[in-house]
Structure prediction request, 899 residues.
Amino acid sequence: MVATGGVARAAASEAEGAPRATRKNKPAAKGASSAAPSMPAARLETLRLALVGADDAAAVEAAGALGESGTPSAAEPLCEVLAAGAAPDRLQAVLDALGKLGAAHALPADQTVLEALTLYSGHRAIDVRRRAVKALGAVNDPRATPPLLERLGDAVPEVRAAAAEALAARHESKASRRMFALLAMGDAGVAGPLATLATPDMIPRIAELTGTIDDAVIADALGDYVKRADVPDKLRVDVLRTLGNLSGAVATTALVEYIASVPAKEDRASKKEAQKLLDQRGTSQ
Amino acid sequence: MTAPAGRLSPPRASALALATLALVMSACATSPYQRAGNADDVAGAVARAHPPVATTRSLAFLVLGGASGPRLAEYDLAASRVVWTQPTDVTTRVEVGTTVIVHGDKGTTPNGEMVGRDLATGAALWRHAFPSAEHLYGYAIDGDTLFVVTRSSTTQSKQLGILAAYDGRTGVLRWQATLPSARVAGPAARGGLVAVPLESQYVLLFDGATGLELGQVLSTEEAATFVRALPEGMFYGSRGLFLLGRDTARGSRHAPGYLSAQLPAFVRPTYFYDLYHPEQSEYSALDRNRLLWRVVVDAGHPQFRDGLAFVHDYRFFFAFDAASAALRWAYVSPDDAVGSADTGRSILFVTASGEIGALDPITGARTYQAQLPGEVVRGASFDAEGFAPPAGAGASTPPDLLGALTAIIADPDQRFPALKLFAIEELGRQPGREVTAKLIEILRTEKTAPLALQKAGEMLVARRDAGALDLLTAALRAHADYCEKRSAPPVEVLARAIGALGPLGRAVAPDLDAHLRLPETSPAAAAEIARALVQIGAGESVPALRDFLTMYRADAVYERDPTALVAAAEALLKLGGSSDRQLLLFLAEEPHTAAGLRAHLSRALGETATAAKE
Prediction:
């Protein structure tokens, strides 16, 4: 994962006074929904000017408006700010806006966006880095995966958790090995994402972590796993029994949440098992 | 002084006579040191001394503790066996005569006692308990004659320094002399000549047979804190050695008889115990941290034997070129050596756990090894002049210097920070890729002390090892990864080391660039990277520099200290082209850019404007 300086080159273009027309009214880029709403060019320009202006509050407000717009063309002025650099508050607002565009499937998967978000996923400020990771996760392009995998090794739990969530949302199975390594170190932030990616053969390994890390972390992972629709019910029963053997409120909550997640009319062996385990916990307490 | 049967003690009449003599002397208007520094007197005294008779003994006297209680043992090195063991709580060091040994013992009186023992059996021959008014300062044996220096309090305010000679086998007083001062130190004796330091700057010389004063040394340039008798001559000094003789009668460092070794900073350059401090005559930590030396004398000119001076530093032994302080060899013992001696042909030592060893002075190879199983050794003295171990008695190959230095550096023992710095410095001076690898490893070890890190970094940068560029690259590529439990590499130092290579280091530029984009790279490391990129001429690193500048130009951290931004801007100015100048101009004018960077850029862009146009 190495950006190529394209981000700063854009800033240089800005400094050189590159004609804005070249940046206007581009067709929606790859990755952005073709049905996404568009924004009038004048409004976009107004927000762009506010975004790069001297007034920090106005810039943050403009970033918010661009993020809420749900239009792919909003990404370009936001990326211009990243290319030119800004104070952390403004950067965070811009990255939040890009994240919102991503959540609305309106974030183009072009080189500029990828490079900018990749670069800022390595920023020293934790809040900047975490937001960049989140936005990067929403870019529908395989080139976003390596920097996300790298951030699984971040020193800060919040950043690791953001990377794990992004990778889980992208169903990046290759992330499961690193996520398991983190879980084995007791990293609670990866429990849920790992549950999303875990294959059946990984479940006994997670259960074997009992006694080496906090039971609540294991309960989190297994509780989320058991709710997955693709898990065979027979395996669910085994996982629920493991959950039943774990101590603490998180394991109890996982059993309750599992029962609640099963449609009332559905008659599953695992549901009965969960209820039985829950009753036993109540009795023993 | 009493025989075991309580035979003799210092005669009362003598004490009275001494007191009278002292009164007479104090009333005398003339200085007792009128002849101090008289070269003829000193030369005459030295000439009267006969060379000591060489022995073929190879004995170690071991002060033992542990579960079996305090004991003294005589160990025959040549035969590798304990000759005798006697129960006694030894305090001051064992001195060895022809047929007798003498040592201090805790005894039952406040000032302890002195014990004479038969060399062959260890049986006590006599004991002398020091009364509260009599303080032992030191003793020496010449043949079987014992010379003792004490300080006695005759009244509450009056103290006397006394030198007394005794028959070492019987404890009978032969003569005694009152010294001109009570500021006394322990004596040395050799071939019928007795030397006693006084007042820190004098050494008084006496005829061992009669007690007649023969001469006075005046040490004019450094304190005379010790006298030491060796087969090659009588020495005095403190931070250097004076071979007693005509040209050292006035203690000038310019005299041919003066000698001092060049030694590294971690060595305490004291050549013998400070004999003015009675506590230094006891077995203590001083025996574990000292200089070992012997000399050869050619026409009155002493030189360190084989040009070497040795340092015993607890578990470690070093040989240094006495002229240059260059390290010749290093030996690491697994356990603290509690006693050591340079016997001329061997460096002997005994460890706390009972290992008895000998090292070859030239190579550092272990030439002898024996073990006292289950013993705890508190101290050791040797009588093994010229001891040459029999072949195969635990001999080993000479120690690998690199291995020894590495062992010192990696040693978890926290007692030796200065020694570790020295070992790192010496390691850095050695040639070879493996040394560079070792320095990088030291830098990566989390437990390395800050000063050691600094020293290892300095050595890595200074060695400019272009042949180990791949090692530097590999170290840089091992990015921090929490998942892999890997901490960040020492980027700051690595960048400096690569920068020091100049254009030879250019291949590493992409790996330096990568660190400009990593969150764990500190501002200080970023600054070093930027400087290194300039040094290696990495024009291809311009994009990374641009990214770094734009990403952090408005960051609060760099507002406080823009050093890294300034370094990156300087690098971009030197390595980049016109579009990069325009970026810098934009940064200089944009109000959110850190004030320090803006100011620097305004100045730098102005200064280089003409050159840029050209």
